[in-house]
Each structure stands twice: as C-alpha cells, then as structure tokens.
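Sequence in, structure out. First:
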Amino acid sequence: MKFDDFYWHDAIIKNIIIDRTKPGEIDEIYFEIKWPNESDIKTLVFENVYWANFNLNFGIISGENILNAMELNEDDGDLMKFYLKWKGAMDDVKLQAYKIILNSTGGEIKILAGKFRVNNP
C-alpha cells in the first residue's frame, strides 16, 4: 500500500520509538498506531531516516490523534534544504518526505526517510 492510501483521520499514536542502535546503519522510527475501525495496534516503521522533526503537545487528554498524513512531493522545502545542506554528498540517497498532522494545535511530525512499512501484530 502507498502511504496516502491509509485512512489516517482519527488514528491514534500510542507510542513512538526511535531506533539508532547502529547509527548510519539502523536509523528507524516506529509508531504504534491504532487505526479507526481496527482492533489491533499496528506498527508504522520509517526506514533509513535521515531527518525528523517532532512538534508534539503533551498534557492533552485526547492524546495525539492524527488529523491527516501524507507523502509530500519532491519539491518539499525541508527535503530540498536537506540536499542543499549536504552539498552533493547525499545526492545519491533517494529520500521521501512524510508529514503527519496532529489534531492538537500545531502538532506535526515530519520525516525524511528512504521508505516506510506497516507491520501487522
């Protein structure tokens, strides 16, 4: 499935794990997510992560429900800045920008990664 094919609205992020056990070899971000109308919690994994920005709100009773999530175009500003910052050293690394917009005011997660997958329990 493609990233944009999932029904993101009102999915709940239950847990976030950043795995850098072998930096440069294993750089992954795991999201345990409860999708609406599904009984099991599934794990969304971003692989080959090169950059991430988490703007999260805490202390909110409703938790971090997802308003929307999307795969962004190649002209995304953060993706373009990443390649410019490395001055050609990362031009052979194919990355995709992903954005998760949260229901809480200003809450947003943005990740530049090689790919994603969803693991079933």
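Second:
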Amino acid sequence: MTSRRIVAVVVLAVVGTLQLWDSHVFSAGGAAITVATVGVSLPIATLLFVERMDVRMAAVFACALLLLSAKLLAPHPLPAIGIIAVAAAAANWLAEARPAA
C-alpha cells in the first residue's frame, strides 16, 4: 500500500469523525449512529483493501446514500453530513494522484 493511500485513509477517518461529531450524529439515536458510522467506514475500508477505482467510487456513492439515510433517521437535523461523501471522493483522488514529474 502506498503512502498516499495511507494518508488518504487517515485524512478521511479524521475528517469523517469530526464531521459526524460536528453534525451531532452521536446524539441522534442508535439507528442514525449505526448508519452514519457504516457510511464513513465503507470508503475507508475500500481505500484500504480494494485496488479498483470503480469499486471505490461505488463505495463513495453508497456512502452518500447511507449518510442521507442517517439524516432521515435522525430526530434532529444533521447539518452538512453529506460533506463526508465529498471528502471520500477527494481522498480517493488523493490516493491515486501522481506527483508532477
């Protein structure tokens, strides 16, 4: 595994956790917490274990759907929780970007 991919995983884990905390997901009830946590974990796991970019981007799409589902399950609004899917797409780009020659 390349160092870029490790950096992308760490960045996504930190940014995803901070955004879940900032959106008050951890006080939204068990179902919303579970769905949101799976939504953040899915792109992290694919970055770690999957080489194919199409599968990893499908995981980003599934992440977005899961985060929107968590927003629907929560008893209170979860502002800007969808930003995590954007961060997941950026992390995939970071992991595959080639340095300039």
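Remark: The mean pLDDT is 89.
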